[in-house]
UniProtKB/TrEMBL annotation:
Organism: Setaria digitata
Gene3D superfamilies assigned to the protein according to its UniProt record, in alphabetical order: 2.60.120.200
SUPFAM superfamilies: Concanavalin A-like lectins/glucanases (SSF49899)
Residues annotated as signal peptide: none
Protein name listed in UniProt: Laminin G domain-containing protein
């Protein structure tokens, strides 16, 4: 099932209707919500707060200074999905950007899988999908990057779909751009000690993101 090519149009519509989520999709019926780790911290850390999301839906605000990290295997499989999508509804609070999420190797030195947003000047933002085999690479690799209009302090929906050798960006409900890529390997395998960070990439790589989701 996890390798199946799914009906992305129906799936992205279903997830977007939920709003205020960071979600992995791996078939037309199943998804994994990356905001689950926030729930236990929401009332414990001042850097996390309740916010008003897109169209009035509830959201969570994240300020720099909080480390949100869980064991990767607590939420995601050791052998990551070959074909998958990631969808998000976010509001960056400043132009500094940062990691929306990052799956990091046990040494906290390489991002195996993640999404990072960075200012690109001229009222543009760069959205990059990171994809690295940390068993063979010492530095984080970018699989695909996309320039979109800057949306600091504005809500925006976007999704990244990975199907074999193509990465597609959907931005504000339109198919925005496609990149042809070569993935090595086509399916990442994570160590049991890999970590999942939300809104940063850990104490070494940093990249804290001040954002509402």
């Amino acid at each position: 099932m996890i390798n199946q090519v799914f009906d992305y149009r129906n799936t992205i519509k279903r997830i977007h209707q939920k709003c205020s989520k960071l979600v992995f999709l791996f078939n037309s019926e199943s998804d994994i919500d990356l905001l689950v780790p926030l729930k236990s911290l929401l009332n414990e850390r001042v850097e996390l707060y309740k916010a008003k999301g897109l169209d009035g839906f509830p959201a969570v605000g994240i300020k720099r200074g909080v480390e949100i990290v869980v064991p990767y295997r607590q939420y995601l499989p050791r052998k990551f999905f070959r074909n998958f999508a990631f969808t998000a509804v976010i509001r960056p609070d400043d132009r500094q950007g940062g990691y929306l999420f990052a799956v990091v190797n046990p040494l906290d030195t390489v991002v195996d899988l993640g999404v990072v947003l960075e200012s690109a000047g001229d009222s543009q933002t760069n959205i990059t999908l990171l994809y690295t085999d940390s068993n063979k690479e010492a530095d984080t690799k970018a699989l695909a990057s996309f320039l979109v209009p800057e949306f600091t302090k504005d809500w925006a929906k976007f999704a990244l779909e990975v199907q074999e050798d193509n990465v597609v960006l959907y931005f504000r409900c339109i198919r925005f751009a496609t990149r042809q890529v070569k993935r090595k390997p086509v399916q990442l395998v994570m160590d049991d000690a890999h970590k999942l960070y939300i809104a940063s990439a850990g104490p070494i790589l940093k990249g804290e993101f001040e954002v509402s989701v």
